[in-house]
Write a structure and sequence with these properties.
- This protein is mainly alpha-helical.
- The chain has helices at about 1-10, 15-90.
């Protein structure tokens, strides 16, 4: 921004008030850029925190699903054992 302002104003004769105005405008633009940059950084940090939270939730869900799958396998084995035992008892009786 500064370089562009210098190039533009260096091609024509300048007066002291004009140079002061350009310097003021450059300072204003610089402040605007700083504020905008901080807002962008804040948003990036907010999004990063949300992504971390989502990632943690997904990992917790995966762990719960794996635990449920293991419990279902155990239940299936128990049901199979009960079925086998019931059929064996029917043959005896």
């Amino acid at each position: 921004i500064f370089v562009a302002a210098v190039v533009i104003f260096s091609k024509r004769p300048s007066t002291a008030p004009e140079v002061g105005h350009v310097a003021d405008e450059i300072r204003r633009l610089s402040q605007t850029v700083r504020v905008s940059s901080q807002r962008v950084q804040d948003k990036v940090e907010e999004i990063t925190a949300e992504i971390s939270h989502i990632q943690q939730s997904v990992q917790e869900s995966m762990a719960a699903s794996e635990e449920q799958a293991a419990q279902l396998e155990e239940l299936s084995a128990t049901v199979s054992h009960v079925k086998d035992t019931t059929e064996a008892l029917k043959k005896l009786g």
